Amino acid sequence: MKLLAKFSLICLVVFGTGLAGSALMAHRFLQANARAEVLRQAALMMEAMQSARDYTTKEVQPLLVNQQEHQRSFLPQTVPAYAATENFVHLRTSYPEYAYKEATLNPTNLRDRAVDWEADIINTFRNHPGAAKELVGEREAPTGKSLYLARPIQVAPPCLECHSTARAAPVALVRRYGPNNGFGWELNEIVGAQIVSVPMAVPLQMAEQAFETLMIGLTAVFAATLIVLDAVLLFTVVRPLRTVSAMADEVSLGRMDVPELAAGGKDEIAVLAGSFNRMRRSLERALEMLKR
């Protein structure tokens, strides 16, 4: 095998091993980074929904209370949870892969009733009041693994105006939702959780796209580096050695009229050329002595 081929093979093995190790670490890093980015977006959405709740409580509710009493009807737009949920419905047009729910163990509106996995999250908050302000985790869904971000919903004094007992609740609310659900709440009790969830396919897809881009870039850099190294080796080592080899063949055949090798420089190739020239001159002198 020629020197250039050996060098290329060695570089392929070394760079290939390094590329494989880099790929493994990069893949893990990009997956973790994509997961963190999805959770950051989920936290941002959670804050947006909390802002919708606060805005409803401070700005919308006072404006609609008089209208609600005048019409003797219940306006769900006065409920912070309803406002947050409806806001997210509009937000999902831009982020269809995300889901938001104000899951509650005993809700007034049955669409907010917690399913099994949501109830587990709520009970975790209930069993550790004050300790857990936020939960992040993964769960198995029918479509695969899903990430979720959850925060507890705790009963505040304004909540008891509608959720203490059916008798104390607004008549219009009871007329709309019935007297059997959403009552019996107690002050500071954790009754539900705000939950933003997203399929794991989203961060995995983000990681795979970034990984593919990175690997294409690294492979291109590796190929360009190998080509440059081969070119450097060819012009600084292989070609000078070929010249020395060709000269040695000529001398071995008795052709002493070939010009001497260029021996400028101090590197090993120049030293080899100088040594060969001295050997050739010594051989010429020895042959002349024999002819005498």
Please explain how this structure is put together.
- With 292 residues, the protein is α+β, with helices and mostly antiparallel strands.
- It has a domain at 46-200: Beta-Lactamase (2-Layer Sandwich), CATH 3.30.450.
- 62% of the residues lie in helices and 12% in strands.
- It is built from seven helices and four strands; from the N terminus they run ααβαββααβαα.
- The protein has a four-stranded antiparallel beta sheet, sandwiched between helices.
- A hairpin with a 2-residue loop joins β2 (135-141) and β3.
- α1 (3-71) packs across α2 and α6 (201-252) packs parallel to α7.
- The radius of gyration is 39 Å and the shape is rod-shaped.
- It starts with a helix and ends with a helix.
| CATH architectural group of the domain at 46-200 | 2-Layer Sandwich
Q: Would you state the CATH class of the domain at 46-200?
A: Alpha Beta
Q: Hey, roughly how much beta strand do the residues contain? A: 5-15%
In the CATH hierarchy, the third-tier topology of the domain at 46-200 is known as Beta-Lactamase
Between the first and last Cα atoms, what is the distance in angstroms? Answer: 44 Å
Give the neighbour order of strands across the main sheet. Answer: 1-4-3-2
Structural class: alpha+beta
The count of helical stretches stands at: 7
SSE pattern, N- to C-terminal: HHEHEEHHEHH
Strands, total number: 4
Largest sheet: 4 strands, antiparallel
What characteristic shape results from the CA principal axes? rod-shaped
Runs in which pLDDT lies below 50 for 5 or more consecutive residues are none
